[in-house]
Amino acid sequence: MQDIINSDNQIPKENIDIFQIDDQKSNCLLFQKILDNNYFQSIITILTLYALFGDDIRILAFGPNADIGFDIITLIGLIFFFIEFFFSVFAKQGYKFSFFFWLDLISIVSLILDIQLINIFLFSLQTTNAASLARAGRASRVGSRAGRVVRLVRLIRIVKLYKATQEKKEENQGESVLDQKKRKIKQKYLEFDQNKKNEQNQEKQSLQKNEKNQKIKNQQKLDQQIYIINQQLNKNSIIQVLQENNQNKESRVSKRLSDLITKRVIIIVLILLFTMPLFQADYFFDLPTVQDYGLSQIEMVCYKKESTHNDIKLTFEKTIEQMKKLETPIIYFTSPFQFIETFQDSVVNTLRDSEKSPFALSLDVEKYKQAHPNDLETYLHLKALDQDQLQFSTFLNQQDQTFFASALSLGRTVFVCIVLTFAALLFSKDANDLALRPIERMINKVNQIAKNPISAKEQDLIDASEDQYETSIIENAIIKIGTLLALGFGEAGSEIIGSNMANLGDINPMIAGKKKCAIYGFCDIRNFTDATEVLQEDVMIFVNNIGEVVHQMVDRYLGAANKNIGDAFLLVWKLPQNKYSISKDNQISFKDTELINMYSDFSLISFMKIHAKLNREPKLLAYRQDKRLSQRMKDYKIKIGFGLHIGWSIEGAIGSEFKIDASYLSPNVGMASRLEGATKNYGVSILISSQLYDQISASLQKLLRQVDFVTIKGWAKPIGFYTIDMNIKDIPQSKGLDSNLSEQEKKKIDKSKKQTVLEFVKQRCFHAETYIRKNKDLRLLLRDFNMDFLKKYNQAFKLYIQGDWKQSKQIFDEILKTNESDGPTKATLEFMEKNNFVIPEGWEGHKPYID
């Protein structure tokens, strides 16, 4: 029972995650285990909260005597934070020297400022000199301000702790659900076994001894089958839990985007916190204080006993002289005394109210009387004044500071705009790079596949890397799916793919067929049955090696593979739809003869290239040395028969909603197959129908010879059979491509060769004879081509058609003396011999063809 439950825990193929969203494995499992420990996390959380608020609580709620206790707690926090930092460096992948590495380091170092002994030592507060004390006070304020700002960095620890807690919670939830499922399944099986045991015990008591054993055995078999079924059903429930748990994992894109946004926000906030004080005027100079206004000195003189008017006046004048020397000089000063004249600078009326720094101090009349009981005149004068008139009023000139503050304010506004713009661009860039642009590329790829499904094969995959995101994987998946669709459906199925992708409704693979005009090629591997029996499992590699050459050459010369039927291949060159018209009686009229000539030449040249490659490529020549094939078939060589024909067909889907094949239906397709089959009768590698011969260019036609002229059942008109003589005897082996080239580089080379053919079509500059002379494979195939032999054969065949069999036989006999293995000559002589070299009655130059 336990073994079965343990086996259920294995993740089957159904749970494979192509995105591989797995947690990164720790470099040090021990350190990782400590970091993930709940108790350790709790201590770190408490110390983090203390690091944020402890120093402020110390000042608010405790006296100086408690500082040493807080220093000890801070020191403990430093130790724990350093331990966590040290463990993280070794346990977490990608943490070392990362953004959060430096933030954690800064936050740990910032705690040092919270230790009062170190703070006192750094800023030297134990000074006796007043100037030194003032400087130290300012340094202490700067240190405190820096400490408070740097302490904000520690807030990131709260974010990190929250994320870690959430991940731990989700993991525990997934594990608890899975454990519950396991317990339920285990309990169910235990109850199942116990019930069966009870039933068996009851049966033992009621059954006879000779029947009991047999029935128990049968019941055990039944129980085992039920057990296995239930096991599989419950196994699926565990798999479902695992899958649901896997679906909840954060994707790489989400994680990366979240990290980038967090980093951007932290950096922007820190930049603002550190730079915004630079845009405050009080950062560069101290604002005027009460002492700066000098009113306290006058107040002291006014309330001093036995001070005279002259003393007050002299103090007033000295104060004005001192205040003129300030960074914010005095521009206006008035008093309630009638014996003191109001001071007013000439610039006072030229300044804005915002450029004047006002200050006022009220005079206490009764207090003045107590200090000056004999100055009754002044007392009465003051007593008659209202409250506003009883004030020492002063204005300082703050024009320079106001100008500077305005400039700083302008700079602050510009800086904030720049930061916000920069931040918006960064956030937009992250979203664009990680999500939006990949989605747009996916949309473009899907649209491209919908417009031209075959183009999926031409699209390049995104280079895989360790940090490949899900969006890149999905992009590659779209290309792969499109490529597989193009490979599976072929060019004939492009309409099915395109129409269904463009349609927002349900899938409808059974769309109506369309009449097309195309060139059909059929290839058949000779002795395939023997090869299959000999090679067994290796026959797939054998066929695919041949198929690779066939498909590659056909694709290079603008054709497409349509069907792979074990030992045979159906190839199609679909002609551009605007270059021909098909009448109701299926007669084809070509509008662009030059283009049709090129496509016809390409179809024949591609088959000639295949014939050469099969006898030159090292990978295929190796089968000549295969002992298994040699023992079955002496001097084994890969041989293929080819048939080529042109005509109309219906392109569409064949099958049902369960399985469809995109193909072509027409007698013309069957004709290509029939031509291939006829190659055996004539001892040639390739046969071309007269319909296609008529469309081949003149420069290539002169290399072909007619081997027969026959009537075929179901065809209204006789059809001519043509071939081209190719010599593969002692043809040299191909060097092939550099073995160090990658598959991608090989594809690029093949793509460039296809592009050359496309340029021929685009520029309308293809000449078959010239191309054959420049192409090594074709040149080697035709290296022994004898034009005199061709002329002599054509003469004999023409006499045969015309009915002069006597003269024709003489020439054919002469041909066999020099080329005794010529299959077409033998086939023609054999037919004439059957008729005793006498023309059949009603001879019209053609004979009935028998498969």
UniProtKB/TrEMBL annotation:
InterPro entries: A/G_cyclase (IPR001054), Nucleotide_cyclase (IPR029787)
UniProtKB keywords: Coiled coil, Membrane, Transmembrane, Transmembrane helix
Coiled coil regions, renumbered to chain: 182-217
Domain Guanylate cyclase: 519-676
Pfam family, one: Guanylate_cyc
SUPFAM superfamilies on file: Nucleotide cyclase
Residue ranges crossing the lipid bilayer per the database entry: 39-61, 68-87, 99-125, 265-285
The keyword Transmembrane helix belongs to this UniProt entry's keyword annotation: yes
Signal peptide: none
One example of a Gene Ontology biological process annotation: intracellular signal transduction
PROSITE patterns, A to Z: GUANYLATE_CYCLASE_2
Protein name: Guanylate cyclase domain-containing protein
Organism in which the protein naturally occurs: Ichthyophthirius multifiliis
